[in-house]
Amino acid sequence: xxxxxxxxxxxxxxxxxxxxxxxxxxxxxxxxxxxxxxxxxxxxxxxxxxxxxxxxxxxxxxxxxxxxxxxxxxxxxxxxxxxxxxxxxxxxxxxxxxxxxxxxxxxxxxxxxxxxxxxxxxxxxxxxxxxxxxxx
Length: 136
What we know:
Layout: H1 2-10, H2 12-20, E1 26-38, E2 41-45, E3 54-64, E4 67-72, E5 87-91, E6 95-102, E7 105-108, H3 112-118, H4 121-131
Antiparallel strand pairs: 1-2, 1-3, 1-6, 3-4, 4-5, 6-7
């Protein structure tokens, strides 16, 4: 997972450029953030080994320099101080992964690969065929 995160961050500036100026045929820009409950709110982390961290996708991203807001797209399973649809404010340094769809195929989403590679080969083949995900 660490290598997938590293690859994602290495290509983040290219993603952000497309987010700000979407080329034709691209859509569904999303970012993955790590959330932890703290008191009555949440904090963000990119530490995948942190206790009680839940990584979830946000969408409808609004950018202002390296500052962002977006809507939480996932329904939290483990944390309780945020819910699906809540608007989240975050910094570029909080981003764990990214994805967008180009001509029907997913670009990015590198953190899916360690999970897919650990599972059945048929599932990896299915994701490759349907979504265009390439895990190397």
